[in-house]
Design goal:
Elements: H1 3-29, H2 34-52, H3 54-61
Helix pairs in contact: 1-2
């Protein structure tokens, strides 16, 4: 798989994660301010990926990290 394809797949996965988690945060915590929702969602996705080891795994297989 070439570099462009790998980056597009990674971007899709991150974007999908942000949309799904953002929707959940908005519904559960009733966050109305878009900037607050975006910040909390991005912050949460980054922490979740790091805690689950996805960042470390991605750096092993990522075209952008080599």
């Amino acid at each position: 798989m070439n570099y462009t394809c790998k980056i597009l797949i990674e971007a899709f996965i991150v974007a999908l994660s942000i949309v799904v988690l953002g929707f959940g945060i908005q519904r559960v915590f009733k966050v109305q301010d878009p900037l607050t929702l975006l910040f909390v969602t991005g912050f949460s996705v980054h922490l979740i990926y790091d805690v689950l080891g996805f960042n470390k795994y991605y750096c092993k297989i990522c075209a952008g990290c080599k």
